[in-house]
Prior knowledge:
Radius of gyration: 32 Å
Helix content: 40-55%
Strand content: 5-15%
Shape: elongated
Number of strands: 7
Order of helices and strands: HHHHEEHHHEEEHEHEHHHHHHHHH
Structural class: alpha/beta
Largest sheet: 5 strands, mixed
Strand order of the largest sheet: 5-4-3-6-7
Distance between the termini: 104 Å
Amino acid sequence: MNTAPMHAELSALRELVVTLKQALELSRQENTLLRQKIDSLVRRVFGSSSERLDRAQLELLLQLPMPTEATVPATKLEVCSQKKMVTVRKDRTPRLPEHLPVVEEVIEPTAVKAEPEHWRCIGQEVSEQLDYEPARFLRRRTIRKKYVHRVKLEAAPVIAPLPARLQDRSLPAPGLLAHILVAKYCDHLPLYRQEQIFARRHQVHLPRQTLARWVALAADWLQPIYEAIRTGVLAGGYVQVDETPIDYLEPGHGKTRQGYFWTASRPKGDAFFRWETSRAAACLDQVVPPTFTGTLQSDGYSAYRAFVNGRATVITLAGCWAHVRRKFYEASETAPQMSGWLLRQLQHLYRIEVSLREHRAGPRLRQALRASHSRPIVERLEKVLLRLKARGRYLPQSSLGQAIDYALGQWPTLTVYLNDGRVEIDNNLVENAIRPTAIGKKNWLFIGDAEAGQRSAILYTVIESCRRRGLDPYAYLREVLTRLPHMTNWQIPEVIPAA
């Protein structure tokens, strides 16, 4: 009996089984990765936006007892603060703000009004309510009288000159312009909704095209203030940069395209916006001038690295630990033990930064304490990540694998803050500056044409500067738009929000 065909068939079946097992294993791995991505997406859309882990969460992630506070590195500032800890009773917030103007209404009893001469006042009782008067339109009329000389009859009539305005025969006064700007760029009301409010509530019909022209007029006048703010941001030698997408209308096609607000921020200073229709590294040449030298801090977007590589002799690139923390947080569902340990180390780093911030430490003290307390943690993190990478325990496509690759790829930039006390641990301050634009675009969806983008950048810059200094943007814009027609460029530094 010839058994050769049977052996060949069995061998083929064995090979098929091996091939199917390999395919099944690959399918399982792919299924696991897809589930991780779906879970991450669900958490981003529906989950909590906070990345902070409390002790209960860390116990669950690590599945072991939490370390006592004695095992956590404590800075000298923390020790001092523990020795000087006192209980401070917070004052109650006034029921009504004291700075508001008061409108008094005196109510007399009926008997007193009938015979006031028979009554003597012995005191009073006062009650208060919080009231509000809605905004109103008014016609601001300027009257200039003409005069002729009573004796010199041949002299020409005289009349006072018309005060300088933003534009000849301009209809909107500074107060109305300031209201329109604040409503759109601070309260995020699109111009078409302002048009409806003016018409329905005040019976004042102002087409949105007219409002758009007035916004452009104001932006042109505020351009010198914008340039002064921009110069101040870049003057310190350390700036944080980020970008956010904004749709704009493509003329003649009725379609929207994607542009970008590039934002540069100086910690404890101002921020400015720059509009570009691209996200390419070349756009940074318009944000950071060739004369800039110092440190540029950003997230891991490759455009920043490409830009700095072209100026490597004068610019240092600093990374953002918040983005590293975010990726480990996203991996905590699929790899809870290792992600929990890594997040705990990052929590130590941020605890040191909180202590420095609470004690208002200067750059030299920050650098010294980071060298003694933060650097050992960072070096320990690097060793662990390199070991995990070498062992290949986590697939490169997995959430934790991607987080490890991201952190190691950014490592030279992540350690910059250890050597420079001016540099923050993350890029969150510039992201906070961008947040108002993100809220606004949910309401107005897109800006006008590409030219309208830079006008919006100017106005966002001025309003953000007011916000950082606690200024009322309406009061500031009304005052500045009133004074600008009378000013020279040399006087501009006197009216920026920082002044």
